[in-house]
Structure prediction request, 196 residues.
Amino acid sequence: MSEIDDIDRELGLFESELKKLEAEYNMYFAGRLQRPPWELRKRVELMAKRLDRTHIANYGQRFRFTTLQTRLAKSSGLWDRGLRAREEGRPGPFAQPRPVEEKPKPSKREDKVLHVATFEDPLREMEKVHQLYDNLAQARREAGQEAIPFHKFADLIKTQVNTLKEKGSPEVAFRVAFKDGRVAFTARGLKGKSDK
Prediction:
């Protein structure tokens, strides 16, 4: 019993440190921190390695750890891409809008759909979540709006999918579009996979 409690405590600590790491990277890429949170990242990676070497007999705990480990791996890849892009002087996944010398003509923006993505389980489709986020962030920048932090966006996607699945939709479609000169972001439950 105490071994299960110890592992639960370790997993809880790992999850809270991972959330803190994600928040600090978001602050770094938003320009609110001077440098990346290297020490915290190293600590979180060491926790992941230690837990990976631990024998976890409980299936629920093993699933929770695997989910957190996958989240860390995918986030690390995204952070590394962002850092590499910043070093190379090009926009990356966390690019902030730069002052543009020539102003584009915002008055003639036509209504159009920019991106559509469907989800059954966003936690297992993180690449699609990142693509949807990048498209929404780009559209918001073009419309002169700030991009929302990724962790808030991911929570919104997860909540919307869960809510619409509870109402009987096996899949949920999200759409990024320009409508009446503004960015529209909508979610709609799909009746079945064969529906178009």
Notes: DSSP finds five helices and three strands in the chain. Residues 59-87 form the longest helix (29 residues). The beta strands are 112-119, 171-179, 182-190.
